[in-house]
Description:
Blueprint: H1 2-47, H2 57-69, H3 87-97, H4 109-122, H5 132-141, H6 148-164, H7 167-177, E1 179-181, E2 184-185, H8 187-195, H9 204-213, H10 217-222, H11 227-239
Antiparallel strand pairs: 1-2
Helix pairs in contact: 1-6, 3-9, 5-6, 5-7, 9-11
Amino acid sequence: MSGIGTLKTGAPARARTGGRRWLKWIILGPLLLVVLLQLYFFAMVCWWTQFNPSSTSMMRQQLSALREQNPNAKLEQVWVPYARISNNLKRAVIASEDANFSEHDGVDWDALEKAYERNNKKHRVVGGGSTITQQLAKNLFLSGSRNYLRKGQELVIAYMLEAVMDKERILEIYLNVVEFGRGVFGAEAAARHYFRIPAANLNAAQAARLAVMLPNPRYYDRHRDTSYLARRTAIIQRRMNAAELP
């Protein structure tokens, strides 16, 4: 009789144990995946301290979109070292995109707070207040979608970049992979696409114009003579001398 009683109570006990095991994996499984993803991001960031990225998430997305219309489409992108990029472009990009680039640790919290206030007024994400480091994080790994989950991941990767790279390396990679137009990535390709010169020869006006195009490069690739582009270029050109290079 005692054996029968043990059998009756043993099955529910095993069921409860199995249920708890599944519940544990339902909770821990996603956390483990998140941790593994962060380790992957960090490993790639460490790799890129010594080696140049051959492509980025943004490049692959843009190439895929281009090949929907033309299966033979290719991106315009040529890697050039930091020394072969005009200081005019470096100063223009910092003046336009991230005036505190040399000072912050990857995230400009004042800019983020202002962006958050703007987004609340508009009831949607219209701007992110991203630093150059954050923009590089997005370009390397993430999509162009605007939501707070992606923004959080962007912050984490930005801190990874700042932890293992100096500012010069971050700016070098950024200027070589950032989008300047439809299928145009990096300073060298942009200088040749718009001005038929190498990136090393960009003057102040040309550099300021390229920097102003960065928030919406595909639009300005098609609309190169807008009044806003001209006004903003003049403003950035005046600010360039105050931009601190790393």
